[in-house]
Amino acid sequence: MALGKMYAQQDCAMARTLEEVGERWTLLVVRDCLLGTRRFSDLRDRLDIPRAVLTARLAALVEAGILQRRPYAPGRYEYVPTDKGVALWPVIHALMEWGERHHPAPAGRRRIYRHITCGHDLEPGTGRCPRCDRVPAPSEWETRPGPGAGQQVRRADPVTVALNSGPHQLLTPLP
Predict the structure, then answer these.
(1) What is the pLDDT of residues 38-74, one digit of tens each?
(2) CA 132 to chain centre
(3) SS3 60
(4) Predicted local confidence at residue 20, as pLDDT
(5) How far from chain centre, in Å, is Cα 8?
(6) Which is more confidently placed, 105 or 17?
(7) Alpha-carbon distance 171 to 57, whole Å?
(8) What distance in Å separates the CA atoms of residue 29 and residue 69, rounded to the nearest whole number?
(9) Is this model's pTM higher than 0.70 or not?
(10) String of b and e for 1-35 (b: at least 16 CB within 10 Å)?
(11) 15: which residues sit within 8 A by CB, 6+ positions away?
């Protein structure tokens, strides 16, 4: 029997949040949009997600106000994180860091993050800048491949290739 989606009998912030982002593909889509993936075909290719599932997840994320759907060519749309979507970065980063701790790549970290403003690497786990003694806003983060990037799974889609070719600022569109 399928579980219900709504938590009408609960006044719980976590339950309400899970209604919007609690499905496996949803957080992966949001992660990739925050990294700079904008187009349907790029999301589909990078995530190996079925077209119907991606369509449903994007529609739900737009309806929830996490992503905005914007035209970039006649009949073509891109998906851009809203302020509400950008506010999910600390949660997504925390989940990625949890994964680095509990499911590490044999060669080391998959991604390394740097504070663009001062040029120092952010502390793994917290995202705190040791020089500025603060956690910068996502727009101030740069990501680059770590020694464990692509060690277990090699991908050739354009987004992964771009992310693994060098530094990239979060929220900046990828090719």
Answers:
(1) 999 999 999 999 999 999 999 999 999 999 999 999 9
(2) 24
(3) helix
(4) 81
(5) 28
(6) 105
(7) 19
(8) 14
(9) yes
(10) eeeeeeeeeeeeeeeeeeebbebebbbbbbbbbbb
(11) 7
Give the domain ranges of the chain.
Answer: 13-84, 89-169
Q: What strands, in cross-sheet order, belong to the sheet with 168-169? A: 111-115, 141-145, 168-169
Gap between the Cα atoms of 35 and 48, Å rounded: 17
Q: Judge residue 165's burial from the number of C-beta atoms within 10 Å of its C-beta, 0-12 exposed, 13-18 middle, 19 or more buried.
A: exposed
pLDDT for 2: 44
Q: Which CATH class is domain 13-84?
A: mainly alpha
How open is the CA angle 162-157-170, to the nearest 5 degrees?
A: 35
d(CA 106, CA 171): 28
- How confident is the prediction for the chain on average, in pLDDT? 91
User: What are the residues facing 73 on neighbouring strands?
Assistant: 76
- In which region does residue 27 sit, left (phi positive, over 0), alpha (psi from -120 to 50) or beta (all else)? alpha
